[in-house]
## 1
Amino acid sequence: MAKYKRVLLKISGESLMGKGEFGHDPETLNRICSEIKEVHKKGVEICLVVGGGNIFRGIAGAAAGMERSSADYMGMLATVINALALQNIFDKMGVTSRVLSAIPMATVCEPYIRRRAIRHMEKKRIVIFAAGTGNPFFTTDTAAALRSVEMNCDALLKGTQVHGVYTADPKLDPKAKHFKEVTYKKVLTSELKVMDAAAIALMRENKIPIIIFRIHDKGNFGQVIEGKGKFTVIK
């Protein structure tokens, strides 16, 4: 039994690469979309925010000497490519979805309009938010937090490479302790690298829990929605 009626799932661009170094892995795309479809079939209203790190990262571009605003806009365009890739898979699976972009691109997708997005969700369509917030200097984590508030979501789920929040990076420190539950304040004051501070602060202000889970484990999204498996709740 699903614990939430409406959720936002944040997917990083890197999670779409599979074992590749860039781009899309068709098998990974199909698995992630299939799991989203199964949860959607249970009556959960789902919206997605997808990153663009598998194609271009604004921060990396800026570090290489590119002007930060231009680099961030390029990163936003990368998220539109990912959103269209997910929509294509949903189409093949017979799932109705809509891509709404914060940067208007009428030829390929709809512009982001809050009331329109809510209407799509009420009609049981999966809504994919692209182009972040539409502004440079904001991450897709902040975009996910913003959209989850605007859509009146019950929770924000962030699919990552690990099973939640740890005291240290579990890949580097095998003794790192896993948190089943942690407060927004703890995440901010301890500088736990989960989401950026702006996203955490926005979620705390609106009292929407953040659930961090590993997206690469088959069936994990469905389990987490039911409150099962290994994950961390930030609230």
## 2
Amino acid sequence: MLAEAGTNKIVEALSELNVQTIVHIPKVGPFDFSISNAVIYMWASAVIVFLFFFIVARRLKKEPDGLQIVAEILLNFATGHLTGQLTEKGKKYYYLILTIFSYILVTNLVGLIPKPDALLPYTPTANINVTFGMAIVIFFITQYQGFHRHGVRGYLKSWLTPPGVPKLMRAPLNAIFFVVHFMGEFFKPLSLSVRLFGNTIAGHVIILVMLGLLLQYASAIVIIPAGLFVVIMLAFEVFVAFIQAYIFSLLSVVYIETAINSSH
């Protein structure tokens, strides 16, 4: 019975990973426009990012305060380290990458903040639909840049064998190269989304399971080591939140830059 009760507590803790509908809206075909806790926390994260940069922009000073210093660090990080390899042609995507990085980071951090059940806690980046939605935006931008910069023929030509391949081998290798590149382009958003989703949900599951044990077994033998483990994991997840935002943004830059400079 005790084991069963313990399992129930763990299940209760893991319920934080469930999407819960707040405002039901009838489906339009296969599309569900209902407002869930995932949507609310996505909106909240977006508002935080917007207000942060909006407030900083309205209060710019020659001697920056704390908020302006953080904003300038983020801006320099995005335009320097993250998007440094983008040429002038891709300069307009600096702020898109900064927004993506900031949004993912804030969303991850908001998800780590302990919240009462009444607030229906949820971490949107622990939902594959959310991460894939962001990744598909990068996919469309990448393909747009490739076709816009080089034309259909020029961009598709970059998917074939490079110059210097003997004519006898060119035809069969072109077919192989084209299929491999075609599949690679469509797997890019999948890899982006699964990487962010997998790393986010893995850390949350571990933390929630340990919290479930703490709620069930109120003894020093369990509380002390489990509590220390949760604290360590929370600190580690803050680091992971930054790393995952960084990796997603950096790979987005790589994909866009590759399409812009796609030529033999």
## 3
Amino acid sequence: MQTDDEIKEMVRQKYSEIALQDKDTNASSCCGAGGCSTEVYNIMSEDYVELEGYAKDADLGLGCGLPTVFAKIKEGDTVIDLGSGAGNDCFVARAETGPSGKVIGIDFTPAMIDKARENTDKMGYNNVEFRQGDIEKMPVGGNMADVVVSNCVLNLVPNKRAVFAEIFRVLKPGGHFSISDIVLTGTLPEKLQSAAEMYAGCVAGAIQIDEYLSYIQEVGFQNITVQKNKPIIIPEDILSGYLTKEEVKKYIDTETSIRSITVYAKKKEQSSCCTPGGGCC
């Protein structure tokens, strides 16, 4: 079994390669991770083209939802995007915050940060920035964000509970998140669980939906709501790269389900009668 550090290094290397690929290559694979299907269509990501702020050069086709659509971003908000990639979700969020807001993208991979900064320079935005860092320990202060978004990223992180704890830390009281991610119902075959490419492709690192939601509750979030829930179907020609013909049939016939969900939760608002010294009535 790989250690957390080994998984992170594998993800970093794979996404460094993905940063140099075009969208069509990424879109016809599993989150850009390889195992390219002969059925050329986007397995997980959804179409951003009609959204205000969409930037074609920043869209690598790596997402599994449209979290900004559900994120209730208001003008002037400070938004943090976890696993910001080439910047697409940040630019869509910036269209919602307007010039009076601020958007911070955090990504683990230097090549992605470079690509996102290039895209920001092209667009001339002065209120969008990108920081390299581990989302298990974000390079931002506490109680600073109104909204946190993320698109198909937490499934890549070994310690998902730690990420939710960090999201709680960086959000202002009353702030909230909207996150699109991959979860499971049922158990993946061992060969898929142990496949490095499938991990980088957002599937083998996914956990059970009940466990995922329990982490959110454990760190203190309220109003937990699944805003969208849809099945993800992996084509047989991708599965056959990891499983025998018999194993593929067994997998298809079981009740195991890979799902894309978008989840919302809110950090409790601070009581208005609390004083700066910590006393509350």
